[in-house]
Specification:
about 25% strand; alpha+beta; six-stranded antiparallel β-sheet; 16 helices; seven-stranded mixed β-sheet
């Protein structure tokens, strides 16, 4: 079973004119380019061409180096490849420190790549490279971290080989991918994804962000046989053009124990999926598909954001959140499925203190798109709930495996399509069975899955047969005991407020609180409606209707289908949404006010 599944969707067409020299496809053309460069370099400078093949965790370097060595021999070039991984210290102590306190979570490592490298080894590598290039025709240094600042000026050209999280995680199930500093031994990525999130990705992402500014070539390497090699000039032109128009992030799908099959049917997901329980749009996790003529690229969304922070976010949001994308979207599919675990999320101070996360709250919200019989949402405590008794019952259940009447303590609301519930940090909640929910969350976390503290999970086995972890200490530390039914109905289930209207259209405010950094609106229209980003990006989700065209006043538009989500960058300004189907359309819009 895969970790992530995806559908053939979310393709963004970018019209950029480019020369063939700026884009090369296939491993053969990449290798030929390197060899030809080495031959020219040898003729002109009479010394070895020194290339840095930097890249992310999970790149199959042997699939690049083997054909490179073979062609070097054919062309009578003396070549040597040096593995940069020899320069790493062991990260085992760092990993143990970051992960030992928690079974489910961890402590974010705040160091940089230079902190985990052996400086003597780096200096030795530099000396050896300077000597070798006098006797060789081609010298290649490869692996994550190769183009660190201490070595950058040494290279004639820098390549950065990149891979999406989807490709990385799924590849880890079929071939060994080792962590940084392990030198092809020790623990594998698929044995401890927590370490990847809390340690390795923190180091790798900081390094990648810097190298992308200095690289000569970007290599999209999700499939080694079909690599795409893009010049830095073209890379930034593509991402800049993308950020000037509405675009979609590619959703990722995965089964969960409580999942249904609503999304599986409408997205034509693989039959082998147990269910289509959740789809996610997480800034550090997802990618963007870009159609450039006949070439299809897939680039991590974080790359797109790093290259165009102000264009996408707007100056105010960029400054407020230091360039971070502040939303996470989940599609919770429980049609013919089960209940989510009874859970609660922490505030910013708790995240900083216990997990070394940024001091940002984790707030959520549920928009109910579709329901079946018996659909309900759990939100807040019952008015007469005894919190101490609730804790004891949950603790006893965790220890003995016995179920208990959780509805005696947790408030629930019968739901229908169009209902919207705010869930500020500290509010106990869960989405109930038989409903399809758009979950709009405010979250900026290094740990991409987020911090969900389970109180009760119905003593049911997970998909692998084990029981999912319960986090009672964390959960009751952050639980707001005053958020009970009466308060919830008055504050978290707000009535829509009309903001503006016209002939056949209207915009309503459906959710806003002082302790939540975003607000949510609903656009309703039979034919079309006009809007303006006013310097703040919009997230649009078609929650009712077939298809709409989101068209800026200037530039290209995007056809959005039910129930997809689209980013309208802050720089777009005025735009129109046109109904391409029959009946009334409803679009949920989230923004930072």
């Amino acid at each position: 079973m895969k970790i992530y599944y995806s559908a053939d969707e979310a393709e963004n067409v970018v019209n950029v004119e480019f020369d063939e020299v700026d884009l090369k496809q296939g491993i053969e053309n990449l290798v030929k380019y390197i060899i030809e460069s080495a031959k020219i370099h040898k003729t002109n400078r009479k010394r070895a061409c020194l290339f840095a093949l930097d890249g992310y965790l999970g790149i199959e370097w042997e699939r690049v180096l083997k054909p490179l060595e073979e062609l070097s021999e054919v062309e009578d070039l003396k070549m040597k490849a040096i593995d940069f991984s020899q320069c790493y210290k062991s990260l085992d102590k760092i990993a143990q420190k970051c992960l030992s306190k928690e079974k489910s979570f961890g402590y974010v490592y705040s160091g940089k790549i230079i902190d985990v490298l052996d400086k003597r080894s780096v200096k030795k590598l530099k000396k050896d490279a300077e000597k070798l290039r006098k006797t060789l025709d081609l010298l290649v240094i490869f692996g994550p971290g190769t183009a660190i600042p201490l070595l950058r000026r040494l290279y004639d050209k820098i390549f950065y080989f990149d891979i999406t999280r989807e490709s990385l995680f799924n590849a880890s199930l079929v071939r060994p991918i080792y962590f940084l500093g392990s030198k092809n031994r020790g623990q594998l990525l698929n044995q401890n994804f927590r370490r990847f999130y809390y340690v390795d990705s923190q180091i790798l992402d900081k390094h990648k962000r810097r190298v992308l500014k200095y690289m000569d070539w970007y290599v999209e390497c999700n499939n080694v046989k079909e690599v795409k090699m893009i010049s830095r000039r073209l890379y930034y032109r593509i991402l800049s053009r993308l950020a000037e128009k509405p675009f979609r992030i590619k959703p990722l799908y995965y089964p969960v124990v409580w999942g249904g099959n609503f999304l599986k049917k409408i997205k034509r997901l693989p039959e082998e999926m147990p269910n289509s329980g959740q789809a996610c749009i997480v800034p550090d996790e997802n990618s963007v598909k870009i159609r450039l003529g006949s070439v299809l690229l897939e680039i991590p969304f974080q790359n797109v954001l790093w290259a165009n922070r102000k264009k996408i976010l707007g100056e105010y949001v960029d400054r407020k959140f230091n360039g971070a994308f502040p939303f996470v979207y989940w599609y919770d599919d429980q049609i013919d499925g089960g209940h989510m675990a009874i859970q609660v999320h922490p505030n910013g101070k708790y995240l900083k203190k216990h997990f070394n996360e940024r001091q940002i709250r984790q707030d959520e919200s549920y928009y109910i798109i579709s329901t079946g019989p018996g659909a309900k949402t759990y939100l807040g405590l019952q008015d007469d709930a005894d919190v101490k008794e609730f804790y004891m019952k949950a603790r006893e259940s965790e220890r003995t495996g016995k179920r208990f009447d959780y509805e005696k303590y947790v408030n629930y609301i019968w739901t229908k399509p169009g209902d919207y519930f705010l869930i500020p940090a500290g509010t106990v909640h869960a989405s109930g069975r038989n409903q399809f929910v758009l979950e709009i969350d405010f979250e900026i976390c290094a740990y991409s899955p987020g911090y969900t503290f389970h109180i009760y999970d119905y003593v049911r086995p997970d998909l692998d047969g084990s029981l999912r972890p319960i986090h009672l200490k964390h959960a009751f530390n952050v639980l707001k005991k005053n958020r009970r039914r009466k308060w919830v109905l008055a504050n978290l289930a707000q009535q829509p407020k009309l903001l503006r209207s016209g002939d056949g259209w209207a915009e309503y405010l459906i959710g806003k609180r002082r302790d939540i950094c975003f607000e949510t609106r609903r656009l309703e229209f039979s034919k079309s409606i006009e809007d303006n980003t006013n310097g703040r990006f919009h997230l649009l989700t078609l929650v009712e209707g077939e298809r709409v065209l989101v068209k800026p006043k200037k530039g290209e538009g995007y056809v959005l289908e039910f129930p997809d989500t689209l980013i309208v960058p802050a720089c777009v300004g005025e735009y129109m949404i046109e109904n391409l189907g029959e009946g009334m359309c409803k679009v949920v819009k989230a923004l930072i006010p």
